[in-house]
Input
Amino acid sequence: MTSSEDGAHGPGKAGRPQPLNAPLFRSLMERMQEGGRSVVLDLGPAQPRTISLLSHFRCRLDIADVEDGLPGLQEDTEPDILGEKIEALLPAKREEPTDLVLCWDLLNYLTRPALKALMNCIAERGHPGMLAHALVAYSTTRMPAAPNRYAPTEDFGLLVTPVTAEQREAPRYTPEDLNQCLPRYRRERAMLLRNGMQEFLFRL
Amino acid sequence: MFELNKKRMTENDQREASRDEARSEPTPAASRPTTATARPAAKSASAGAAVIGASIQIDGDVRGEEDLLIKGEVNGTIHLPNNTVTVGSEGTIRADVHAHTVLVEGVVEGNLFGSERVCVRSSARVGGNITSPRVSLDDGARFKGSIEMDDEAPASKSAAKPASKSTSPSKANGDSPLPSTNGASDPSAKGEAARP
Output
């Protein structure tokens, strides 16, 4: 089995969920169990399993569902324009700042300027020390044409559901690319997963 | 999750059915004794509810003491604190809803407050915030907004509540309640692989 055929990021068959072992996500959830109230920002679409899992914690879940706005971010490179577009996609800033951001594989579908603008806008909403969990195509050269659906499981794994069988080239952002695009964050941990994805934990 | 929802639905249906039965009981002065027998058994939470029909548009506050099914359009606020509000699949509301139970199958732009629960069905599109002790969202539903999961959520101020456990390791690196990981290592540089 090649990495591109392995469940989480390969073409797969649309609609068939695949389990994905993401150790950094598991450790995050375990730490949330130990901590107090937190605010979680999920950039993906609302998923029943995410709501179910986080209902066990003292938290507020903000669901941004920014996927529909991705096409509008592909053309622009001007940071101010991108910032305005992204602000319109994100939940309004609130007094209680964000503690954890779930990016999952959304970052793979952003240009470098859009990635930088998005993470800057999110940083404006975050606590000092806010964490961002992301999955970035690393060793795999191809990825689905649209972001997969990710949902957590009760044992803190992930279920990945492809929404399309079509593929496109993966940007394969390197850690150095990400450092340049996320200047306000520092890479706290990273792990290479079996499916060719790199699991990242960034801290603001 | 899904089994739990089904259980809740069953309980809700029973509760709604019993409400309908109570309403259907002929009063001593009832002049239409056939009403009770003519009414079909309650099949859903919206059975027997007052209906805002598909051609009706209401701008303003809606208040009352009975269940409500919205098939039309409501712009404003809805206050039915002891009852169920159902936004039907053809319904559209731009309103904050305060109800015992809120069921959404249509389009909502506004905040939903359910003292018992809020259920977002697969056909629903919701933009707004949800506050309720029980929130369920069916696969396929579109939701954009916030869901408050914390019964003891701070009312409005920015200060997050301190950790309930004194042993919480938060604040170790800034103010985030999420504790720092073990060191700031970057195992990827060493090619660390996840377990199968």
